[in-house]
Amino acid sequence: MNAQRLTGLIAATYTPLGADGQLRLQQVPQMVEHLLGSGVSGLYVCGSTGEGMSLTSEERRKTAEAYVHATDGRVPVIIQVGHNSVAEARQLAAHAQEIGADAVSATCPSYFKIQTAELLVDCMREIAGGAPDLPFYYYHIPALTGSAIDILRFMTLGAQQIPNLFGLKYTDTKLHEFQQCLQLENQRFDVVWGCDEMLLGALASGSTGAIGSTYNIAAPLYLQIIEAFEAGDWVEARALQNQAIEMINAIGTFPFHSAMKAILGMLGYDFGTCRLPQRALSADETIRLRQLLEKVGFFEGIVTR
């Protein structure tokens, strides 16, 4: 396994769906070109943003193939394979390796909750074993999985029992815990930040890579945050992060991912809306969303940077 750490902004990609709810993967190449042109340095496919848990396994395979093919090796593509069926997740991991993905990632099963780090290691070892030649990133998102395990203990045990455990997608708000994960075992793991509204705090804690939803629409803004941070211009960095927070707050007024898909439509990328159990925005909500975005300068500044 010849793995490199993820750096910069990794866009958690959306899955294009038609009005009939079916995949519209012909939209993927245009989106990939948009993302690469906006400065992202990797793609994270079929995660929470990409509605991986709402797709059939066959749809997940097709979506993964579309993004790997369209990217054509220009940036790393990480495929999220988590599933309530560990066996199914292992098969999705094997498929990701077969099609030439650069890494795999997985949430834990969430219907039957994971209660201990030891049990989580057992599950992730089985999944990661489906793609033994690829780096494996555990996707830590306790707000959605409901599994509040000791993530530091998991990583420590996983280092001993999961040969290709390479890193962690950390989607929580505990910067102190994130920093400890970064430092674990002499910085052994690639720990990637997952909360867009707290990117600056993560950078200050040592982050060098971040995976997020709003990088689809505002990557240049976040790249400016990174640039200001690296230049030591904290006043500018805080001001830019505040712009990102205002944008995220506007989007969060509505069902978040459906609102994000509506914004993609406003920008010329027809990705439809989200599947149930996520609901679509009404016509009035879409108008209101545009108004809120205009109020925070999204179209005149953030998206045109």
Automatic annotation (TrEMBL):
One Pfam family it belongs to? DHDPS
Name the InterPro entries on file. Answer: Aldolase_TIM, DapA-like, Schiff_base-form_aldolases_CS
Question: Which compartments does it reside in?
Answer: Cytoplasm
Annotated GO molecular function terms are: lyase activity
**Keywords on this record?**
Carbohydrate metabolism, Cytoplasm, Lyase, Schiff base
Q: Where is pyruvate bound in this sequence? A: T49, I211
- Per the record, what is one GO cellular component? cytoplasm
Q: Which residue windows are transmembrane per the record? A: none
Which residues act catalytically here?
Y139, K169
Q: Which family does it belong to?
A: Belongs to the DapA family.
Record's protein name: N-acetylneuraminate lyase
